[in-house]
Amino acid sequence: MIQEKRDGGLSYFTAASLEGEKNIRHLFTSRRGGVSKGHLASLNLGFSLGDDRENVVENYRRVCAVLGVGIDSIVPAKQVHKDAVRVVTIKDTGKFPPEPSRPDCDALITRDKGVTLAAFYADCSTALFYDPVRRVIAAAHAGWRGTALAVYRKTVYKMRTDFLCSPGDILVAFSPSIGPCCFETDSDVPEALVGAFAEKAAAFIEKRGNKYHVDLTGINKMLLMDAGVSGENITVSGHCTGCETDLFWSHRKTGGKRGVSGAFIAMV
């Protein structure tokens, strides 16, 4: 489970498994504690949703103040619902904001001090990774398409091949995301997941009438364990964005009229 914390008006979440690590800082935002207005109130981190740009920048400043990092240290993923995993360095910092500087990928990895990786969610899953032995961090995003492409598993593989990380050393914390209680789909989603992972995925899919309920977190945890990550090193948030719309943004529950939350991890 992840734990809610407050700093001033900002409400955010941390994972105990990552919190004790002195070389990193991390958090998952809620929708509370920012300055955005209207249906985007209050902690919206999305520049492309019609929000006032200065409000979004101020929201990032508040998050960075809690993390103890500069806003110019952020390297955010563009998130195109695919499986590209990109290694970034300190040379990639200093370009954010503005928003168009995002790398075209769904997962980012670095070992450089002074880099803050960011991934975003409003029902989709995000996950933060840390190898305390090799001192490598990652942030990744997976909706159902990214899950079918095993982007989290590929993030572990990239950490292993590029930085010699042992999967058994890697700590992973999942953000709040839509749970199987609220993630109701037509047949296309389970067909894609079962097509990719066969019966391993089928165990996380339940048919109810003409619809299907899918546990994406369960599938992604299974894929991480297949990649060698210990189940004991994986923290699942326990929060459903669809159930807790007073606390989290939910694309499905609002019909897309919503803001964006962020998962941040910084190497310090």
Topology, please?
Blueprint: E1 2-7, E2 10-15, H1 16-19, E3 24-29, H2 53-67, E4 74-76, E5 85-87, E6 107-110, E7 115-121, E8 125-131, E9 136-142, H3 144-148, H4 151-163, E10 171-174, E11 184-185, H5 188-197, H6 199-202, E12 205-208, E13 211-214, H7 216-226, E14 234-235, H8 251-254, E15 261-267
Parallel strand pairs: 4-7, 5-6, 10-14
Antiparallel strand pairs: 1-2, 2-3, 3-15, 6-9, 7-15, 8-9, 8-10, 11-13, 12-13
The largest pleated sheet is described as: 6 strands, mixed
Ends: how far apart?
Answer: 24 Å
What top-tier CATH class fits best? Alpha Beta
Run of helices and strands = EEHEHEEEEEEHHEEHHEEHEHE
SS element count, helices: 8
Task: Give a short synopsis of this structure.
By secondary structure, the chain is of the alpha+beta class. The protein has helices at residues 16-19, 53-67, 144-148, 151-163, 188-197, 199-202, 216-226, 251-254; strands spanning 2-7, 10-15, 24-29, 74-76, 85-87, 107-110, 115-121, 125-131, 136-142, 171-174, 184-185, 205-208, 211-214, 234-235, 261-267. The model has no long low-confidence stretch (mean pLDDT 96).
Structural description of this entry:
By secondary structure, the chain is α+β, with helices and mostly antiparallel strands. The chain has one domain (3-181, 234-267): 4-Layer Sandwich (CNF1/YfiH-like putative cysteine hydrolases). It has eight helices and 15 strands. It has helices at 16-19, 53-67, 144-148, 151-163, 188-197, 199-202, 216-226, 251-254, and strands at residues 2-7, 10-15, 24-29, 74-76, 85-87, 107-110, 115-121, 125-131, 136-142, 171-174, 184-185, 205-208, 211-214, 234-235, 261-267. The chain has a six-stranded mixed sheet with strand order 1-2-3-15-7-4. A six-stranded mixed sheet has the order 5-6-9-8-10-14.
